[in-house]
TrEMBL record:
Signal peptide from the UniProt entry: none
Organism: Catenaria anguillulae PL171
Name of the molecule in the record: Protoporphyrinogen oxidase
Keywords assigned: FAD, Flavoprotein, Heme biosynthesis, Oxidoreductase, Porphyrin biosynthesis
Gene3D superfamilies for this protein: FAD/NAD(P)-binding domain
Length: 503
C-alpha cells in the first residue's frame, strides 16, 4: 500500500498536469497541509502562482479558519484571551517545522520566547489530596519529596531503582516477540514502577495534557518515548540515563538539518535561539499564525467556508476516478486527492453516507473529547506563562475542566455561564484567594466538544491499518485524530502528508 501511495504522489508532482486536492478542515492541520504542499512545489518546480500544478480547495463547516486556535482581545481591558492553545514548544523536528512555518509567513519578529531559567519554565504545582503541592525541579528535591509520604512524589526513588530490574513484557523481548502490541498508561507504569505513581502523580499529568484517563489511554500513542525506552533499552530509567528519551531519530535529525539549510541563515539563527527556550508564543496570540496562513494562501487556495459536507464518494478505480465531496448546498467538489483533518467519526459518517467503504480500523479510534465540566483538570497562570506578553495590571488564569469525566453516568454538563462560575470558584478555593480580591474584570467561558481526541489502546496500529486502506484511494489522514494532539504534532502530520502529495 505504501508503494502505491508514493508512486501516486510522484505522479501528481511530476506529471505536469494540474491536479486538484480537497482539504477537509480549516484548522491548523488543514492550513499547514496547504502551506507545505505549496512550499514543496515551489522548492521543486519554482512555481508560485497560477501555473501551480496542484489546485487546492479547503472546506470547513465553520465560517472562520483556525479550528481550536482562537485568540480574542477583550475590548474593555485589552487583555488577550486564548480560547485554545496558547504556547508552543520549540523542540525536535515537530517544533522546528512549526517555527519554520512561522518564519515562512514573515512572523519571526513576532515570536516571544521564555528562557529555561524563567520561573514560569520551572514551577509546576499539582493539586494533591485537596492541597496545592509544588513539584520538584532538581534531583535533590526529588529524593527529598520521595521520602515524604504526604507528597505526590512519595516512593518514586525506590520505584525507579526497582524499575531497572523489571523485565520487558513478553511482546517487547526476544526475536520472536511481537513488537506491535500496546497497553494503557496506567498498566505500563504500574508494571514498571508502581500503581501509586499512577494514582498520585501521572493521573494529574495526563489530565493536564490529554484531559483523559490513564487507565484508558494508550501509552504507545501518548508517551511513545516510554514505550520505546522499554523496547530499546529494557528499562525506562536506563533509557533516561542513556539520553534516549530526548534523542531524535536519525531520520528526524536529517530532516531537521535539511529544513534549517533550506530556510537559510535567518531561520538558522531563529531556530538556534528558540530551541534553547522552554516555550514561545506570538504577539497577538497564536491566531496570528492562522491569519498569516490565510493571507499567504488567499491567492492560491479556494476557501470554501461555512460549507457542511454531506457525503464523500471514494473512487472505485483509484487510477482513474475522482473523489467526490458533496456539500449541503448541493454542489459537488471533484478532486484527485483528499486530505481529511476532521474528526474520525465525522469522516466515517461522510463515507457511509455515500456508500463508500472505509477501513474497519477507522471505527476503532477513540472519539471521546474534552468538554467543560465541574471536575478540574488544571489551572494555567497565563499572566506568568509568557512574561513578554503579560498585561502587568491584570492577573490572568485559564481554568480547564471536564475531559473524560464527562463520560461518567449522571454527570451534569454545565452551561457557559455555569462553567464561568465553576472556574472562578476553583481559583478562589484552590489558590486561597479571598472573594473580595477575586472579583473578575473579565470572565470568558467556552465549551470545546471533542477537541482532544482520546487515543485508546491499539491506536498506533489502527492508524497504520486505516492509512493503508484509504491511502490506496488517494486519501491522507492528517492531524490530531491520528498523530498527536499538540499544534506541533499537527504541523508535522501536515508536513509529512505534503511530502507524499507533492513528492
Amino acid at each position: 500500500m505504501q508503494l502505491t501511495r508514493l508512486a501516486l504522489a510522484a505522479s501528481i508532482a511530476g506529471s505536469g498536469q494540474s491536479r486538484h486536492i480537497a482539504v477537509l478542515g480549516g484548522g491548523i492541520s488543514g492550513l499547514a497541509t496547504a502551506h507545505f504542499v505549496r512550499r514543496r512545489l515551489a522548492d521543486r518546480t519554482g512555481t508560485s502562482g497560477a501555473s501551480d500544478p496542484i489546485r487546492i480547495t479547503l472546506i470547513d463547516k465553520a465560517p472562520r479558519l483556525g479550528g481550536w486556535i482562537q485568540s480574542d482581545v477583550d475590548r474593555a481591558t485589552g487583555v488577550l484571551l486564548e480560547a485554545g492553545p496558547r504556547t508552543l514548544r520549540p523542540k525536535g523536528l515537530p517544533g522546528a517545522l512549526t517555527l519554520a512555518m512561522i518564519h515562512d509567513l514573515g512572523l519571526a519578529d513576532q515570536v516571544v520566547t521564555v528562557p529555561m531559567s524563567s520561573p514560569s519554565a520551572k514551577v509546576r504545582q499539582m493539586l494533591f489530596q485537596d492541597r496545592v503541592e509544588r513539584l520538584p525541579v532538581s534531583l535533590g528535591e526529588v529524593i527529598k519529596t520521595s521520602r515524604d509520604a504526604n507528597s505526590p512524589m512519595a516512593g518514586i526513588v525506590p520505584a525507579a531503582v526497582r524499575e531497572v530490574f523489571v523485565p520487558r513484557r513478553p511482546s517487547q523481548s526476544g526475536a520472536q516477540g511481537r513488537k506491535d502490541e500496546d497497553e494503557t498508561i496506567a498498566a505500563f507504569l504500574s508494571r514498571r514502577f508502581s500503581p501509586a505513581l499512577v494514582n498520585n502523580l501521572v493521573s494529574g499529568i495526563v489530565h493536564g495534557i490529554y484531559a483523559g484517563n490513564p487507565h484508558q489511554l494508550s501509552v504507545r500513542a501518548t508517551f511513545p518515548s516510554l514505550w520505546n525506552a522499554e523496547r530499546d533499552h529494557r528499562s525506562v530509567v536506563l533509557g533516561v540515563l542513556k539520553g534516549a528519551m530526548s534523542a531524535m531519530s536519525p531520520a528526524d535529525a536529517a530532516a531537521l538539518a535539511e529544513l534549517v539549510q533550506s530556510r537559510g541563515p535567518k531561520f538558522a539563527d531563529l531556530w538556534a535561539g528558540a530551541s534553547k527556550a522552554s516555550i514561545y508564543s506570538v504577539r497577538g496570540g497564536l491566531e496570528a499564525i492562522v491569519g498569516g496562513l490565510e493571507a499567504a494562501l488567499m491567492d492560491h487556495v479556494e476557501f470554501n467556508l461555512g460549507s457542511q459536507p454531506t457525503s464523500i464518494r471514494l473512487p472505485t478505480d483509484p487510477a482513474r476516478s475522482t473523489i467526490e465531496v458533496t456539500l449541503a448546498n448541493g454542489s459537488t467538489i471533484r478532486a484527485d486527492h483528499l486530505v481529511s483533518t476532521i474528526p474520525t467519526p465525522s469522516l466515517n459518517s461522510l463515507l457511509s453516507a455515500s456508500g463508500s467503504s472505509a477501513s474497519p480500523a477507522l471505527t476503532h479510534l477513540a472519539s471521546t473529547g474534552k468538554r467543560t465540566h465541574p471536575h478540574l483538570l488544571g489551572i494555567i497562570f497565563d499572566s506568568a506563562a509568557v512574561p513578554g506578553l503579560a498585561e502587568p495590571e491584570y492577573t490572568k488564569f485559564t481554568v480547564m475542566m471536564g475531559g473524560h469525566y464527562f463520560s461518567q453516568p449522571g454527570v451534569h454538563v454545565p452551561s457557559v455561564v455555569e462553567a464561568g462560575e465553576l472556574a472562578l470558584d476553583a481559583v478562589r478555593r484552590h489558590l486561597s484567594i479571598p472573594e473580595w480580591v477575586a472579583t473578575p474584570v473579565v470572565v470568558r467561558a467556552r465549551l470545546h466538544h471533542e477537541c482532544i481526541p482520546q487515543y485508546g489502546v491499539g491506536h498506533v496500529q489502527a492508524v497504520r491499518r486505516a492509512r493503508d486502506e484509504v491511502g490506496a484511494r488517494r486519501v491522507e489522514l492528517v492531524g490530531a485524530w491520528y498523530d498527536g494532539v499538540g499544534v506541533n504534532d499537527c504541523v508535522r502530520s501536515a508536513w509529512e502528508a505534503a511530502q507524499r502529495i507533492a513528492g
